[in-house]
């Protein structure tokens, strides 16, 4: 058993790409009349892609994002880091 804490380190390029994808998914959900925040949260919690519309390839885009990476970025942004 390891006795150390593992560190995650995501590059700025990954942050920018994830931001771009989330915006595209948000806009696609909004265009289809969904509440984008609720749908994205449903996807994050369940990893069920049916929470995301196929409109503008949003479902394909969201599946390019690793859920752990997304959560790490969201927590960091929420805490202002």
Key attributes of the depicted protein:
single chain, 81 residues, 4 helices, 59% helix
List the helices and strands and how they pair.
Elements: H1 12-31, H2 36-46, H3 58-62, H4 67-78
Brief summary of the model shown:
The chain is mainly alpha-helical and 81 residues long. Helices cover 59% and strands 0% of the residues.
Number of domains: 1
Provide the helix percentage. Answer: 55-70%
Q: So how many helices?
A: 4
Give the strand tally. 0
* Biggest pleated-sheet summary: none
Radius of gyration over alpha carbons? 14 Å
The low-confidence parts are none
Q: Using the alpha-carbon principal axes, give the shape.
A: elongated
Strand content: under 5%
Question: Describe it for me?
Answer:
The protein has four helices and no strands. The chain has 81 residues and is mainly alpha-helical. The N and C termini lie far apart (31 Å).
């Amino acid at each position: 058993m390891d006795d150390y804490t593992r560190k995650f380190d995501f590059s700025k390029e990954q942050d920018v790409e994830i931001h771009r994808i989330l915006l595209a998914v948000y806009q696609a959900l909004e265009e289809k009349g969904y509440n984008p925040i609720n749908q994205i949260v449903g996807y994050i919690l369940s990893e069920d892609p049916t929470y995301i519309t196929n409109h503008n390839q949003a479902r394909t885009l969201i599946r390019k994002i690793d859920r752990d990476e997304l959560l790490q970025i969201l927590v960091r942004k929420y805490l202002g880091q």
